[in-house]
């Protein structure tokens, strides 16, 4: 396993009577890496090994720093990590500010500046409140702030949304995106929810039975045949686009030398020149053999058919479409349409995407 100064290098084995974790991977030292899998796959156990809360055999190096090898093991309290648990576990007798200051003191950061963290997580109005007066989403935001107040070099997040209802998840997700776009520290993010992977991750580690099944950049993970990210659901493509000018209420996004258009009021953060991250569902993509200037669909981009495979629904097929620059789209169409158009790999076709289908999926991208 090749090691670099900007990676997290793991070669760890942890044996229990009924479970063994074995991980030999080099993970990115920047961005968000999602540890994805069902319950019992070893995600949280791996996170605890990185934190020093479990004692596996093997080696662990963080950006060239040895945290564990055959000669020594850096104890948990000396590892520069912030840990966000499923439950915030705040001290009920302390205010929000008191909880933050306690964490800072324990980490030897008593004089650290809290203002940027408080502002980033939008908790300034909560500082004098006790935890009992906070919602679940507010408590978790405070828990994240407490982890960041320790000024970690690595942030570990163990299913931070799993204890929240749908409304609270939607409340906190924009703050997690803000962390992703703002922080210059790597994040290991444990989840079993595909939607969180698609929205937050740059890299995905798929785990099962204590083993790594695949470790890929997100764009490659969504293109993986039979990927568990879309079990029984429509495929989603992850695209990186550069925001351009707006015209007639539509913002132009440049992707692989071509243009997609989205409603301007749906992408408030699409400043010209900014890189945006776009999710496109396969069910929102149609295929045409010709460019169609006489239809209302603004988004028509030329693509090459890379592959045609079975879709989740037996009546449909999934068509993988190459945009260029390594970027992919997917279209889920009926088998009857495939036969009528005589589609086959290698054909140049046009992918049609309604602008309104893209309106809710744009967000700033942290490109690493």
Attribute tags:
alpha+beta, Rossmann fold, six-stranded mixed β-sheet, 22% helix, OB fold (Dihydrolipoamide Acetyltransferase, E2P), 9 helices, 368 residues, globular, 2 domains, 20 strands
Write a brief structural summary.
This protein is of the alpha+beta class and 368 residues long.
Describe the structure.
By secondary structure, the protein is of the alpha+beta class. It has 2 domains: 224 residues, P-loop containing nucleotide triphosphate hydrolases (Rossmann fold, 3-Layer(aba) Sandwich), CATH 3.40.50.300; 129 residues, OB fold (Dihydrolipoamide Acetyltransferase, E2P), CATH 2.40.50.100. The chain has 9 helices and 20 strands. The strands form 4 sheets. A 6-stranded mixed sheet has the order 6-7-8-3-9-10, sandwiched between helices. A 5-stranded antiparallel sheet has the order 13-12-11-14-20. A 5-stranded antiparallel sheet has the order 15-19-16-17-18. Strand 1 and strand 2 form a beta hairpin. The mean pLDDT is 88.
């Amino acid at each position: 396993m090749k090691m670099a100064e900007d990676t997290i290098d793991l070669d760890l084995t942890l044996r229990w009577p009924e479970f063994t974790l074995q991980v030999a991977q080099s993970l990115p030292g920047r961005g968000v890496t999602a540890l994805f899998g069902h319950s019992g796959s070893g995600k949280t156990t791996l996170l605890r090994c990185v934190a020093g809360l479990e004692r596996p055999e093997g080696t662990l190096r963080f950006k060239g720093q040895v945290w564990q090898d055959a000669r020594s093991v850096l104890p948990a309290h000396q590892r520069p990590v912030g840990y966000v648990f499923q439950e915030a576990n705040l001290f009920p007798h302390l205010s929000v500010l008191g909880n933050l200051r306690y964490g800072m003191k324990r980490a030897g950061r008593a004089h650290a500046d809290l203002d940027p963290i408080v502002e980033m997580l939008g908790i300034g109005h909560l500082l004098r409140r006790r935890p009992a007066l906070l919602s679940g989403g507010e408590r978790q935001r405070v828990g994240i702030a407490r982890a960041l107040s320790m000024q970690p070099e690595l942030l570990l997040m163990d299913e931070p949304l799993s204890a929240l209802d749908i409304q609270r998840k939607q409340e906190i997700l924009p703050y997690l995106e803000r962390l992703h776009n703002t922080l210059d520290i790597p994040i290991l993010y444990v989840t079993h929810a595909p939607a969180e992977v698609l929205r937050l991750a740059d890299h995905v580690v798929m785990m099962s039975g204590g083993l790594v099944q695949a470790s890929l950049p997100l764009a490659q993970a969504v293109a993986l045949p039979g990927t568990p990210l879309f079990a029984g659901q429509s495929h989603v493509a992850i695209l990186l686009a550069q925001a351009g000018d707006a015209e007639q209420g539509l913002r132009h996004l440049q992707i692989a030398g071509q243009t997609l258009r989205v409603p301007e009021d749906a992408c408030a953060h699409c400043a010209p020149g900014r890189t945006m991250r776009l999710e496109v569902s396969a069910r929102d993509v149609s295929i045409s053999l010709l460019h169609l200037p006489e239809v209302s669909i603004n988004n028509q981009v030329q693509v090459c058919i890379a592959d045609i495979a079975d879709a989740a629904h037996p009546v449909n097929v999934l068509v993988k479409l190459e945009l260029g620059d390594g970027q992919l789209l997917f279209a889920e169409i009926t088998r009857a349409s495939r036969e009528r158009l005589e589609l086959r790999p290698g054909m140049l076709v046009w992918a049609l995407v309604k602008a309104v289908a893209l309106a809710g999926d744009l967000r700033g991208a942290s490109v690493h």
